[in-house]
Write a structure and sequence with these properties.
CATH architecture: Orthogonal Bundle
Structural class: alpha+beta
Largest sheet: 2 strands, antiparallel
Mean pLDDT: 91
Helix content: 25-40%
Number of domains: 1
Strand order of the largest sheet: 1-4
Shape: elongated
Number of strands: 8
Low-confidence stretches: none
CATH class: Mainly Alpha
CATH superfamily: Cytochrome P450
Distance between the termini: 24 Å
Radius of gyration: 18 Å
CATH topology: Cytochrome p450
């Protein structure tokens, strides 16, 4: 959720589009909070979450896999018992698969052809197959509901003394913002 909020503040057009969708589909101050049943009405936020996961997968390297037999991957012979690492971070930023791969553009997912469920190998934030992350559904719902509720009640901006946001990453097993996210909430009327 931190990466999503950071990207939204850096891209106010996208934040406004999510808030406009909330206002159109749910209305402002019509509810105490947005709940899971509301998610089916709100489509743009799903694109925002996909784009956030493409640029900022929680685990940049998926769990290692070991080959059971001799295999060939893209012309390379891989012997049995070789440990393989999948770099989800690099896959999500590969210019062979993504136009402007370093830019935050949720609309790139509008055609619905790429998902994060392990069927699209251009994006693997949760892995794929039998060993994909069992917490995927819970994680996605948490991010979607959290973002929607933050954007339902508040506009967000950088503190006055900050002119730009540092997006440098830190970590190894998981990737976090090196500099903590600081935002100012402004109550929406």
């Amino acid at each position: 959720m931190i990466w999503a909020m950071a990207e939204l503040v850096r891209n106010p057009r996208v934040m406004k589009k999510v808030q406009d969708e909330i206002q159109t589909c749910i209305g402002i101050k019509q509810k105490e909070r947005i709940v899971e049943e509301d998610l089916d009405k709100l489509h743009y936020v799903k694109l925002v979450v996909k784009e956030t996961l493409r640029l900022h997968p929680a685990a940049p390297l998926l769990l290692p896999r070991e080959t059971m037999s001799q295999i060939k991957i893209q012309g390379y012979d891989i012997p049995p018992k070789t440990l393989l690492m999948v770099n989800a971070w690099s896959i999500g930023r590969d210019p062979k698969h993504w136009k402007d791969p370093e830019e935050f553009i949720p609309e790139r997912f509008m055609d619905g052809l790429v998902d994060y469920k392990g069927n699209s190998f251009e994006m693997l934030p949760f892995g794929s197959g039998r060993r994909m992350c069992p917490g995927m559904a819970s994680g996605i719902a948490t991010i979607e509901l959290g973002l929607l509720n933050l954007l339902y009640y508040f506009d967000w901006k950088l503190p006055e003394e900050m002119k730009d946001m540092d997006m440098e990453e830190a970590g190894d097993i998981t990737v976090v913002k090196k500099v903590p996210l600081e935002l100012l909430p402004i109550l929406r009327m």
